Amino acid sequence: MTGVRTGRTVAVTGVGLVTPAGVGTEETWQRVCSGRPTAADDPELAGAPVSTSCRVTGFGPRRDGGGGQPWRYDRFTQFALAAAREAVRDAALDPHSWNGARVAVVLGSAAGGVGSYEGQHHRLLTTGHRAVSPLALPAFLPNMAAGRLAIDLGVHGPVLHTATACASGATALATAAMLLDGDGCDIAVAGGSDAMVTPLCATAFARAGALSRCGGDPAGASRPFDAARDGFVLGEGAGVLVLERAADATARHAPVRALLAGHGSTNDAHHPVAPRPDGRCLRDATGQALEQAGAVPGDVDHVNAHGTGTPLNDRTEAAVLRELFGSDGPAVTSAKGVIGHTMGAAGAVEAALTVLTVQRQTVPPTANFHAADAGTEDVDIVHGAARPQSVRLAVSNSCGFGGHNVVLAFAPGPTSRVG
Fold this sequence. Notes:
By secondary structure, the chain is α/β, with parallel strands linked by helices. It has 13 helices and 15 strands.
């Protein structure tokens, strides 16, 4: 390997997760490594064309950090607050003592508070305007999770919302890295959150033909890269990372889980929802991330794939992986087999899992993968059980409606043991 770039390399010093696999980073990691799917029939989606989802369970905003008045917050904001508070604790930072003017919040979401929007619109139509809450707007506006985090953490630096559909969380992390690199902040609390397991969203995705029909087996519905895949399973959750310049983290003796060594962003400019068939722009985003990391494709030991389980996405992504890395390429996994597609949170949740893979030198399995088809063969899909292995460099792929591609490259921290 040519070596991760030095100077203003970004360190990941904290991780926070709220996912269908668990409330908290360790609980999520253990469930993902077990390969046990979370998809189940969802009574709240009764009547929708598809009623299977990966929903966060065992979560309560009072217990898990959703704010002192949880009724004021949409579910996606509650998730973001809980994940951010865990990440800040994990980074051994105290918001009461940091310089808030030098801290940034960058949070991605595909839909914002869509659950609150649906609920308030239903009130308007069925009961009248007096039934609409005066807090409806701050509940569902997409930027409000970032704004609430700023209030909760005492952040006075840049507070931004990113919206690149299912790549939103990854875009937030790349944006935060650029803020650090440009001296716009010293600490960035960044990631993504979404709570789109709602009747409207489930119906819309089903009508678009994007959701798995599951064939009477909800637990087996999310099948990334498998020959029998027929769509994704709608999920929800949040992933938040604390990012700092590596030199600053070292100076304060902070724990460094991994290094965000590079990032790349491109757009297909091809179709509103379908990926570019030749995958050129996803390939270009990977090239950008590797160039920043001072690496070449042969240095990559692991890919956390976008891997939605839709026939077209997986075929295109697999072709890019084969072209970039050859038939003897890196170990590939998709967490969506366990946690479903967490939408705008996916890029951040999967980045967090990639950080843990690099730190712990273990690649989680792809749940429900049994056999490849002609479009996904010759890709090393980890399945059956987690695989302990050397991971010198890992990339996390995220793609979204609108043609967005974001690739993040992670390398072990200075105290990690590789090999």
